[in-house]
Every structure is written in C-alpha cells, then in structure tokens.
Amino acid sequence: MVDGSTRRVLPDAGVAAHNKTRKGYLSMTERKPSETNSGLTRRNFLKLSAAGAGALALINPLGHFAGAQGNGASKRPNIVFFITDDESWLERSIYGWSKLPTPAFDRVAKQGVLFNYGYTSAPSCAPSRGSFLTGRNFWELEQGAMIQGFVPNKFPLLTDLLAEAGYQVARVGKGMGPYVPIPGIGHGDDAAGPHVNAVLVEEPQEKISSIDYAASFAKFLDEREAEKPFFFWVGVTEPHLPWAKDNYKKLEERYGMTLDDIDVPGFIPDTLGVRKERGNFLYEICYADEHLGRILDALEKKGELDNTIVIMVGDNGDAPPRSKASPYDWGTHEPMAIMWPSRVKSGRVVEDFVNFPDLTPTLLEAAGAEVPKSMTGRSILNDILLSDKQGLVNPTRDFIVTGLEWHGEFAPENRAGRMIRDHRYEYVVHYGGGIPIGLRPQLELPDSEFEKTAETAGLAELLSRHPNHPKVKPFVKLLTGRPAPEEFYDLEKDPWHLNNVIDDPAYAEIKERLKARMKAYQLETGDPRATGDMAIFEKTREFVQKRKKEGYPRAWDEFSPELKELVKNM
What we know:
By secondary structure, the chain is an alpha/beta fold. The protein is built from 18 helices and 18 strands. The strands form 5 sheets. A 7-stranded mixed β-sheet has the order 7-9-4-10-12-5-13, sandwiched between helices. Strands 15-16-17-18 form a 4-stranded antiparallel β-sheet, covered by helices on one side. A 3-stranded mixed β-sheet has the order 11-6-14. α4 (125-134) packs parallel to α10 (356-367), α6 runs parallel beside α8 and α7 packs across α8 (272-301). The longest helix is centred in the middle third of the chain and has 30 residues, at 272-301. Mean pLDDT is 88; it is low at 1-73.
C-alpha cells in the first residue's frame, strides 16, 4: 500500500529538491495472463513465432481528427502519460513471465490494448523521453541524441503543439531530462509541461520520491480549467536506483511476493542475494503501479476516465548490465498499454512493433492537431487503436530499430550501437566496441565462502567476490567483458541473448536481410551512423563529456568559457 496521505503542497521552485536523488543526477493485478495474450505466457515465452517480411514504410502522418470523429467522438480526449524510470517489459505480470502484482497496469491493458512489442527509441532516459516528445528517432535529435545534451528548439514538442491546440498541459515528477536547457538554442525544463504544485506524502519512504504523484494529479483535476481538455505527464522516478535495502521485505509484507516468487532474468545469476536486490527494485514498481491505480480512480471519480487516453510505459530497461544503456532487448523493450474506454475496444493484444515516436503523432491526431512533417513516427490511431483487430495488425510494423550513442562514458570508451529485431531474430552492431565493466579483485573471496556470500550479495558484489565459482563464472564475460562488434540472436531458441550466432552459416541469409533492412531504415531517417555525417555526434560527445567533467552545470551562466564555445561551434 502506498503511504499516500498528504501533508503539504510543494511550491514549483522546490520540486527538484524533493525529487528522488539518483545516481548521476537529481531527478526532476491479477497474476494470470490475459487469455487473449497469444504471445507471452510463461510456457510460450520461449516460442515466439517468426513474422513474415514486410515492406519498409516510413510515413509522415497528418492529423485528421475529423476522421476520428467519424467514429462517434463528441469531444477531444484528455491524455495521461504515465512513464516510469528504468524497467523492462516482462516485469509486469500480465506479460506472463513475472509474478509481480501490477493490477493498475493490467487494468489499462485489459480495458484497452496491451502491446507485446512496445519499444523505446534508446535505452537511456533523456533520448528516450526526447524521442517521444518530438516524434523522432533518438538519432534524429542531433544534440538530443545523448543524455545530458539538449534538444534543439527547431524540433516541435508534443506538449507545445497540444497547448497551441487548446489543451491545458501540466506534469508532475521527472520530465524530459536529464538534458540541459540552453536559452535560445535548446528546450528547457518545461519541455514535458509546466510543473504543477506537487503534493507531498506525509511520511516519505527511504529512497523513494517524496512527491505524491497521484495526489498531485487529483489536485490538478480539482483546479484545472474545466472547459479545456488536458495533457498530464506523470514522470515517476521509481524504480530507478538507489533502492532501500529492505524493500524486499516490504514487497512480501505489502504485496505478498516472497523471495521464492521473484523471477530472475536468465542473463544474471540466480542467488538469494540477487533475488533480494531484485526485490528491492520490484517493490518500487509496485509502488509506482499503485499511483497509476489511484490516478485511474481519480479520473473515474471525476467522470473523466471514459474520454481519457491513458498511456503507461517505462523509459528504458532495468539496472543490470545488458539492460539499461545497452541495445539488447532487456534495455529497449518496454511495458506498454493504452486505454481510451469510450473509443478503444478493450481486451486486445497487439503484436505490431510500436516505437515511442509513433505515440506522438497518434496523440496529436486524436487531439485534432496537425502532425508536423518533422515527425517521423507513424501514428497508430486508426490502424490499431480505433480498430477492433489484434495480433499483427499492420504487416509493415514487423520490425524495430533502436540504439544508443552515449551514456556517461569517457573516451576512448564508447557504448554506441544499433539494434534491429523482428519477431524472432535480433542483430546488434557496436560502433564503439562497448565498454568493459571492471570487477574489484580486492573483494574476491575463496569459493568456500560462496554460499554465505550468495545469501546477501547483490549482482555487482557477487561478480567481484566469486568470479570463478561455477554458478557465477558463466556470466562474468557476458556481463563484464566487451561485446563482439556484431551480434546475432535467435530469440526463439535464446530469449536471454546468451549465444551469439553471428558466425553460424545457418543464419547468414537472415542476418544479411536484417542488416540490409536496418541500413535502409537508418538512411531513410538520416542516422549519422549510416550516412557517415558524424560531425554533430562527435561535437555533442565532446560537449557532454566536458559537461560531465565540470559537474553537469545546469545554467548557461555556470558554463565554462570552453563549454560555451563548444555550444557555439555545434
């Protein structure tokens, strides 16, 4: 249960100080899977079916709200966009792998549409969120392609476009960043909407934001301009690190989930200590899910739920290696569900690949606003949301391309890469060679102490203390070494990406087909990694590394002369 009773309202200027302190920056159900979920029960998770090849299509949609009204809409919908910080798709119970109780997400999915293949454009929070707000792939954001960079003003934002169309726009919690606002050049802190006066919980929990997201939204509902439709961004900072060390106990006390119930991804060791660490993380997902449930209840109480589009997603994957800040599926594949009770047929499960930039033109069309030609996302309003179909609805949505450019590393280390996958196969290329994760040999213990260590040690400590133990050694190279320049996975046989079959001749034709498809999509969308015009990325990488060395100054007048010069020369 969420400690949701409130004590006071937080003024705008004090919001950041009360947000959850995160590493590297200060952040601004039923268990049974749906019977219609044909793709992802525990049994058939390992049996994802291959999809037929479809023609590559890239459409710049135009907003035609009149067409949507033709289906009976009487007024423009409200929109609630609920985004969590660092979780991968299978953590939500309705997908059939996890036992974690997430009834609010499951409610959105069952009363709307569950997406089995919802993806972020980048496994890093800022470019992920920036891709949604601009309707563009992260590599199309120029300086915004990298966390701690900035999104140029020339790219119109969903929030601004909705405000211009008559929507009341607001947010609570974490917004688009961490980017840096640069006057006259890059979008500022209100890119995700003006921050409402936040309501605080009476007794904040350790390592969890003191902002009561749901109460803040309810307060907004009470005070909003009733004649206007609204867009409300709920930027939950959970379940991002750090976590309280005893969350796993509260997970059992409050949600009935024991350590035995916790599932562990197949690419990390399964020990009691790792389960405790995952329990600390999973508790925060349950906490966030309760806020989503309270928001749904607040909408229902106000009579607004039927005409509100509710979208719930995560921004990028979990914390372990090969998740967040990596192009693999556990880093980019996100929970995604959308409901709009008055318009969207419920109980459907969609197998189409849907990327964050696709959501932007979708919402603009639903709001009756024109979609700028700068947006390369493809609306899912008419072909998926307003249809009665499920499964693979649009055959051209049978693949996804994602990737990363920078996530805090210093040269010569480089995480840059791209990934393409269809319903069965995944191809990954690492442009910069990836980065190794160093073990701490000073912590190593004899394997005679393994059982004792395994009871309490989290993943990083376990790898350092017992790198040669039989239960750990198979994971050490996978999690700490440099990846191969190219990787290829048969996800039907290897869902956890354990066996790179890039050199297996049996997959040669399929591999080349995916590579060609990715290259075509990159060229069509102007990815510098395909066009060879790398100047903007090279200058941005220099800028973000310099900013990091200077302690991430936030204001232009705090920039060093060298940092200002870098911006001017971009």
